[in-house]
Design a protein that fits this description.
CATH class: Mainly Alpha
CATH superfamily: Winged helix-like DNA-binding domain superfamily/Winged helix DNA-binding domain
Oligomer: single chain
Strand order of the largest sheet: 1-3-2
Largest sheet: 3 strands, antiparallel
Order of helices and strands: HHEHHEEEEEH
Radius of gyration: 16 Å
């Protein structure tokens, strides 16, 4: 748990018991998860507490939101030095149409997009949809 404490403290987030548990859960996942996925895992926890934990993590650059087109917001751990900056830290996401999992493809960065004068990007979300490596092998 010491390592989890350090992750939270490095992002100026107070390490409460629930925050540590949610962080540990997210770090173990190789795919993006929804609030419902987290609720299922922590079946005795309050939905509001879990939602606030995710929002705190998002506001402090620990997780980022993914809109993968399924209608359910998903969350994934940010890279170590990520600040979720639209100009620097954006990467591709892949949504599998077969298993319905969404993963971050952090090694594939979204290039800078030159917008016309007067336009300002607030968020960029690029999701590639298809069949993942795991489902392709079936």
């Amino acid at each position: 748990m010491d390592n989890l404490d350090k992750i939270l403290e490095s992002r100026t987030v107070r390490p409460t018991a629930m925050r540590l548990l949610v962080l540990q859960f997210l770090l173990q996942k190789k795919v993006a998860v929804s609030l419902s996925n987290i609720e299922e895992y922590f079946d005795n926890s309050d939905r509001t507490t879990l939602y606030r934990t995710l929002k705190t993590f998002e506001e402090n650059g620990i997780v980022h939101q993914i809109d993968d087109g399924t209608g359910t917001t998903k969350y994934a751990i940010c890279e170590e030095h990520c600040n979720c900056d639209v100009e620097q830290d954006l990467h591709l996401h892949f949504h599998c149409n077969n298993c319905n999992e969404t993963v971050c493809l952090t090694e594939h960065k979204i290039p800078h997009i030159n917008l016309p004068e007067g336009y300002k990007a607030v968020d960029v979300n690029l999701v590639v949809k298809g069949i993942c490596e795991k489902c392709s092998e079936l």
